Amino acid sequence: MRIPVNAIVFEDFETLDIMGPVELFGLLQEHYQVQFYSLNGGLISNKHGVILQTQPFKDMTVNQHSILLVPGGIVTFDLIQNQPLLDQLKTLALHSGHVLTICTGSSLLAATGVLDGVQATSNKMAFEFVQKLNDKVRWQAQARWVIDGKFYTSSGVSAGMDMTLAFIRDTQGEKMAQLCAEEAEYIWNCNPEIDHFCKVKAD
Amino acid sequence: MRIPVNAIVFEDFETLDIMGPVELFGLLQEHYQVQFYSLNGGLISNKHGVILQTQPFKDMTVNQHSILLVPGGIVTFDLIQNQPLLDQLKTLALHSGHVLTICTGSSLLAATGVLDGVQATSNKMAFEFVQKLNDKVRWQAQARWVIDGKFYTSSGVSAGMDMTLAFIRDTQGEKMAQLCAEEAEYIWNCNPEIDHFCKVKAD
Q1: Residue A26 touches partner B, C-beta closer than 8 Å
Q2: Is residue B193 in some structural domain?
Q3: What is the pLDDT of residues B108-121, one digit of tens each?
């Protein structure tokens, strides 16, 4: 049976946050089955002209093997007030085998409390925001991505692809991760400690 | 007025081929307006679980400024036989200000004849296929992307993002391209002559 990759979206999600990892999992179709979900299902759009058909959260297959993908976007600054979304997200995160957040997707997770005491990172432009949001999270200021137990959290947008390849390596082996990067002709920035954008944003 | 970015898709399009460039243009919303189109409009899906709402080709704004984005995918091996699609694609390509193809998207364009005599590239795994398809195209075997007049053609999948940043640089300036890459925390492989995957595939 293929591992469920449950990609969640909401209005004004950041396109590449979710589509980068989806491409990489999608290239390994014999292992993973990607499906898109939103709180209530139906069409979800963003400012990039993307209009996606989704299923409702309640129809998601969540188990010890399933992978939850959580994108970010500027809209997460508002979504941290959306209690119905956060309540359901918390349940999904607690019951998924792995949770991968991209960019400010980690702010949503932080707002649910499931990252309390966990090492995590986020988009470097939103770093003050996430720190203020929940100081119980052990935020890492310089990291392209951070792994702590079942939680993989990445920096902004494109960092999600580098993190996803690391996740594939950790769970399926180095060879499969390399093959996946080659199929996508993606130049994998495979060292999580090299974070160019940390410096860019600090200047 | 914003420049129309007309992203075309078809059943089983490659996710990141189109979503990588869409993210980058989407980050520059004050300059570009991205919309998705398919031959007859409606919902278009692919094997990565993506189901996209699209408008029909006939509703596309095509002019000397508009940008046509053409993704690839294994399905293009079949689509080169789809004459109704190719006929319309030819008209769109001829009347668009710029045409950007990603991966085997260039095979579709080559099949229409509009690339005859034009320098172009494609996914390196599909290189024999595109060469056989149309030997009047001046195919470049080693290039992450190739520019010839209004045509920008890239290698596989992720190369589309590097090419899109080059396009933004050429048309809006270096500063905007760099800003866009930083916003996406994308490590821009900005030299089109460095093509790691050319070697990978030749081994």
Answers
A1: yes
A2: no
A3: 999 999 999 999 99
% of chain B residues with pLDDT over 90? 90
What is the predicted pLDDT for the residue at B196? 84
Phi-psi region of B134 (alpha: psi -120 to 50; beta: other; left: phi over 0): beta
pLDDT category at B172 given cuts 50, 70, 90 is very high
CB-count exposure of residue B92 (10 Å: 0-12, 13-18, 19+): buried
With an 8 Å Cβ cutoff, are A47 and B53 in contact? no
Is the minimum CB–CB distance between B28 and chain A shorter than 8 Å?
no
Segment A185-195, tens digit of pLDDT: 999 998 898 88
Q: Which of A52, A103, A185 sits opposite B51 (nearest CB)?
A: A52
Is A35 within 8 Å of chain B by CB?
yes
The per-residue pLDDT for A198 is: 81
Touching check for B200 and chain A: CB below 8 Å? yes
Is A167 part of any domain? yes
What residues in B contact A50, CB-CB < 8 Å?
19, 22, 34, 36, 52
The nearest CA of chain A is from the CA of B159 a distance in Å of 7
Q: What is the ipTM of this complex?
A: 0.95
Residue B201 is predicted with a pLDDT of 54
Contacts of A34 in chain B (CB under 8 A): 48-50
B203 pLDDT tier (thresholds 50, 70, 90): very low
Segments forming the whole domain that contains residue A20: 3-184
Whether residue B90 is contained in a domain is answered as yes
Count of structural domains within chain A: 1
Q: Supply the CATH number for residue B143's domain.
A: 3.40.50.880
- Asked if residue A126 belongs to a domain, the reply is yes
N-to-C CA span, chain B: 48
**Which of A61, A67, A158 to probe by mutation at the B interface, max B CB count within 10 Å?**
A158
For B15, the closest of A5, A23, A49 (CB atoms) is A23
pTM for this one? 0.96
